Amino acid sequence: MTETLRQINERRRHVTGGIGERWRALPKWQRAIGILAFVGFLYYLPLLGIPGLTWFRTDSIPQGNNWAGVLFLCAIYVLVAFGLNIVIGLAGLLDLGYVGFFAVGAYSVALFGSTQSPVVEGLQNRFGLSQDWAVAWAICLPLAILLTMISGVLLGWPTLRLRGDYLAIVTLGFGEIIRIIARNSDWTGGPQGIAAIPGPQGAPSPDNEIFGLIDAKPWYWLVLSVVILMVFAVRRLENSRVGRAWLAIREDEDAAAVMGVSGFKFKLWAFAMGAALGGLSGFLFASRGGFIEPTQFSAQLSILFVAMVVAGGAGNMAGVALGAFLLAYLPERFRDFSQYRTLVFGAALVLVMLFAPQGLIPSRRRARELKDRAKEAPANV
Amino acid sequence: MLLEIDNLTLRYGRIEALHGISITVGEGEIVALIGANGAGKTTTMRAVSGLRPVATGTVRFAGEDITNLRADLRVIRGICQSPEGRGIFPGMTVLENLDMGAYTRRDTAGIAADLDRVFGLFPRLAERRKQAGGTLSGGEQQMLAVGRALMARPKLLLLDEPSMGLAPMVIQQIFEIITEINQQGTTILLVEQNAQQALSRAHRAYVLETGKIVQEGTGQELLTDSRVRDAYLGVA
Amino acid sequence: MSDTEDLVSLPESEAPTRTDLLVVDHVTLRFGGVVALDDVSFEVRRGEILGLIGPNGAGKTTCFNAMTGVYRPTSGEVRFDGDRVSGRKPHQINRLGIARTFQNIRLFPEMTALENVMVGTDSQHFTSVPGALFRLYRKRPKPEELPVVDSHNGLVRAWQQTRLVFAKVFGISRHTLEERAGEQKALALLRFVGIADRANELARNLPYGYQRRLEIARALATEPKLLCLDEPAAGFNPAEKEQLLKLIRDIRDKGYTVLLIEHDMRLVMGVTDRIVVLEFGKKIAEGTPAEVRDNPKVIAAYLGVPADAS
Amino acid sequence: QDSGGDDNASGDGTCGGKIAIFGAFTGPNAGLVIPSLNGAKLAVKQHNAENANCQVTMQEFDTQGAAEQATPIANQVAQDQSFTSVIGGHFSGESKATMPTYEAAGLVMVSPSATATELTAAGNKSFHRVVGNDSTQGAAAAVYFKNTLKSQKVFVIDDGSTYGAGIASEVTKGLGSLVVQSDKVQTDQTNFDATISKVKAAQADAIAYAGYTNEAAPLLKQLRAAGVTAKFLGFDGLYDPAFPKGAGAGAEGAIVTCPCLPAAEAGGTFSADFEKEYGEAPGSYGAEGYDAAKVLLDGYKDGKTTRKELLDWVNAYDKQGVSKYIKFTDTGDVDPSKVVIWAYEIKGGAITPQSEIKLS
Amino acid sequence: MKGIFVDFDALFGHLGQHTVDGLSKGSIYALVALGYTLVYGVLRLINFAHSEVFMIGTFTVVGTWSVLGATDSPAIGTVILLLLAGLVAAAAVSGATAVAVERVAYRRLRRMNAPPLIFLITAIGLSLVLSEAFGIWQGRLVKGMPTVIERSVLFTIGNTEVTNVQVITVLAALIMMFGLDVFINRTRYGRGVRAVAQDPDTAALMGVNKDRVIALIFLLGGLLAGAAALLYCVRYGNTRFNVGFVLGLKAFTAAVLGGIGNLRGALLGGLLLGVVEVYAATLTSSAWEDVAAFVVLVVVLLFRPTGLLGESLGRARA
Ligand SMILES: Nc1ncnc2c1ncn2[C@@H]1O[C@H](COP(=O)(O)OP(=O)(O)OP(=O)(O)O)[C@@H](O)[C@H]1O
Ligand SMILES: Nc1ncnc2c1ncn2[C@@H]1O[C@H](COP(=O)(O)OP(=O)(O)OP(=O)(O)O)[C@@H](O)[C@H]1O
Ligand SMILES: [Mg+2]
Ligand SMILES: [Mg+2]
After folding, report:
1. Which structural domain range is residue A5 located in?
2. How far apart are CA B5 and CA B21, in angstroms?
3. What structural domains and CATH numbers belong to chain E?
4. B71 & B162 share domain
5. Structural contact between residues D128 and D314, judged by C-beta atoms closer than 8 angstroms
6. How much is the ipTM here?
7. For residue B102, what is the nearest residue in chain E, using CA coordinates?
């Protein structure tokens, strides 16, 4: 069993490695065309009707789920993975409470944008505003990003001096605290959650033509566009002084400090950036759903996020995107497994990590690191 | 022959660090390995102590083939290495570090005697016996590493740059110790940058260059060899 | 090495003056019961090479640590160029102008040699994180900074041309310019210390000697006024030490001030202008190499044999 | 697996259709939902057997009780025009999350077991339920505390879930000054020392617990072990055989209220049929699941085949069901005067019907 | 309903009682925390699957007791038999599971010298597999079991009642912690464990068999988790397929609080966490106890970045 798996994996690595090399060998313009075609395909995906490929649709099974809706969720997770990748993959900080930022983003739009939120109701009463006044969606967007960045900084400020796994457990606590506050406070709507969260066309109503309640396609396209934008943004960070500083800090923080790189500052930035992306995805998620409740932001989700990043290949955006996509998509496509889903999912996670420890699409640097380390592993140990 | 290395190759990833070297060390000898940075001296030591897997070739110790033996089992056979970079257990006290050297030994009395001997050799360590290894100064750590290796009472002692980071007086002392324990019956394979000292104390020596043995001979022969003098002894 | 002259920019290349660059002022540092530094005072003068020697455990490395903010003195203070050093964070101290290497090499093992040095150039960046993200601050490029148009493929050529026009009209972002300058400088430094041939290799895979030199290059990249070297020759053979000696002289000749910890007397005597000797955390001697060599206290505590002991 | 009959047997095109049923069919609280699902399946099966020319298909969608899983399902059902009605959601959260979507799609929802009061308060046009809401049950429990148990000091505990917090606030309202103190526990909590010492300090003679079995069973066990003898009353979330099993001997005498009928009281042959089909008595909401399906099936039988027709049909529904008489108010609640709330007692480790709680 | 209201009377009126409650709650955290700390100390990785090792222990106790036909409050002889049988079975099964976890999820990665993050994910995966397997097999609802030791008040100080079960749990935790501490810090084998923790390569050069040491620490962690499982069953009389998740997180928090890699720290952290939680739950409600626990954690780490007692097994500073 393991033997065949290993062989499969060898072959996969061979093939993907080969593809990678050949891909990089292509002239730039050919790569550009390839990328454009791929992006086009992504936009076409919710309409997927190519014979033979329809098998991939999540609604191709009897109890299947809305295909565009699942794609939307996948895209949201990809966005989350990008954000967490900054924190884990680039800055090397293990954040086990990333769902906290996701929640802050979601609650930002819910608390300020929904007419049913206690905060908005409070504001209405306080300033004598009309019953259907609420902060506009377009204003909630920067607000959500701002609030998550602030929460990132608030979390990071006291804790970023901690090392490695101390940080992990503290962040985990942060995620839980956010959820518990949301669940047990009145001003967050408590366990009942908040409904009537607006989208780009305002509060959810049957009249919203584009970003409506039923058709998820426009939502998917919206998030996909954001994702593509973020690819550029994150790459810019990665291939800049900032990315290099993150890498140096990851390797040896003290040495970096003595070379004039402020570990604290760059880690805080990583947290803030990661948080902003998490907040943005939470924001979009809440707008689409129109309703959120605290149970949607459990610690398990945080762990799933980490799994997406690591299994996909921490540090590599294509990798984490693939990881996020698969981890969101597979459980939906294989709904028929019903109660065995999580079990199979866990087993798959173990197998992927055992046979492709650098992730599905490893960052080239990480892969090299691991290869070196493996070769160097002491004999017989 | 106590140690026979035959046609040994060793790789780090794609880089081949040793290209088929053969070295022998006889019972009771001091054999020195000298060579420039990156020549493969440390790598050779690692192959003998079992820290790195060997690509091809064999390592025999006291007649037994130990090429694929686990590192900890080699210790039981009587090979002990004082590693490059010292390998102090930072969270253990000086005393515990020394005790680790005697990990495979059971003779309590002998261990206690050896402990006294090491403290006698390095009074500094005795002063600091309760200090955590990681907080010692570089030179103190070096003393500790050598002292710990002595605690194993090995048949074959591998010393990788024992004089590194030591003050001139202590360097002198270290080499005297090496001679002394050798006279007491311990076979020594020594890697040193201080070629002058190493060659004058070694019975035989090998010169390594980029993973190959380029010269071998008695210590005195090499000490007077013009090529060796130019490359490793510096301008007098 | 001549081509590096203009690239390695120098700290106010003033002639060696008598003014003190670094002052260690009655510094005491205790770890529990261990007194690692006991009321030590000395100063480093601009443009000199000062040697710091002493037996093992005398407190030399600890002194470096106190100067670079790794430890805080229990009492006393360190002043650098008029500023107090004690109490600042390591990266702030680096920006004051102190750079160091480590006794146990501490490179960024998974970064290439070039990247390692580029981390050192980081302190010369003016772009902040948003700057690196949005790259809105643009500068009019100098002619040599403009993108080249050299392809024969029509499409590609058109693309290059577009970029050229774009750069001419909108300028090039400061971040990009800084990155390029940093890379040039890093390469120059690698050449300067003599390891440019393996610039793109991971630091962890470099031989020991290369790693030591890489540390020096990385420290130089921060454009320090004072370069502190902690046993740079450890693990070198005499021939290599000779090269290192030359390198340190070159560094000094470029106007840097150097503080050197080293146990190899030939190197210390050959390169330093003055020497400070520590023992058991106390300063026991100070003076020119010749004075120190003949100082009976130093001989008793450290050198062992009167003459050259190596 | 499609339940009830085969697809291709649909009659003459003027009859039959497709129902979607969604809820937590897997996951920790599936035990509360499965009987309802089975009830609905049974109804469909009976219908199809009786009306060969009016075949109805019912498709299951498992949400694991989570709102974020229910939303894409709602999209799927809303966009698939072949679905003409919905049974669900089973829990309040998933119902709340999906109501706007179903409303926008003009699909009628009939829920067997979502009891949160607020669901019907916001004026949603699509949502209906064949079960009493939390305010009715809370009020009934309050009546039970006052009249049957004659409690003087009631300690109210909830688990902070949508369901628990909602019903706790209703019962608190009903009890007024009889509530001495309240406390919140959390999901997956195992140690209840703090709560227990509060109960002791308050010298409560009765405890109302609003939440599910997973926390209630250990809580009750620890309460009894700590020597607290106060009467323990839980709500329909505990109407699950796992509750007495988990709490062990301590559960003896505990009360569970439920807006659901004891099997024996259900109208017609439902109980017998259910037992024959599934080999066990209908548990929580089995009858309600049956009724929810029946309301819709009657519509299909009557020739209603579009979403609009079915919505109107349900709004106008007025007929005896197996669990109660079913007639909806304007807001979609079942007529409050027809709601029945029962008190069950744990006896010999089983949930046994005790008495109907009369509100007035 | 109010958000947070603070009830000082409830806390200070029965401070002693809450402390005792907290200590007994915390001693179970401490035992599980020891397993995390051991593995972390040696391998620098969070063994996420350890919570499942504990969970399996509780189910083993349930199984053993039901095989032995346990009933509520049996005779004293039977009690001892049940406890012993439960302990042996749970320790054996948990220990075996822990060693198996190492074999399946870690060994291959260890050979490859993979970075810790990878271990974390396999651990999470394995943890999911184990808990889901039990969820499917044993159902997802609480499983009750007989109350083997009837609670009784041993003695009363002021208004503080100390019960037999509390004394047993706290004592058991203390004994096991000190036993382990002696083993690690005083014995030759323990020194081997610490050596592997600090520098595996050099440890091998000293003659330490790394694989054996690692298997040993997993085994020890598993045995302790088994003991914790028994105490848990005695104390709570319930278990569930996912008991491990929350308890594991708490135990890991406790380990960090005390200084991860530090055995005494695990004990201290566990007890402290238990007490803090009970205080917080009394002061407000159980809903906020986790918040209090994490706030205390953050505050402690701010002042002592490596936990209350600092790291000890692992690399100190340097
Ligand atoms: N971990 C490693 N990964 C890859 N290459 C390595 C590694 N360690 C050593 N090498 C390479 O192997 C060769 C031999 O290195 P080795 O450390 O044995 O040299 P050495 O003779 O001990 O030198 P030094 O005097 O610097 O200690 C060098 O080229 C070095 O770059
Ligand atoms: N963190 C610490 N805790 C306790 N003692 C320490 C600590 N750091 C250093 N020391 C002690 O302080 C003394 C000075 O150490 P230092 O590293 O400065 O010596 P050094 O002069 O650099 O010696 P070497 O030439 O051997 O490197 C040593 O005796 C060392 O054991
Ligand atoms: Mg070497
Ligand atoms: Mg030093």
Report:
1. 1-44
2. 7
3. 8-315 (1.10.3470)
4. yes
5. yes
6. 0.87
7. E206
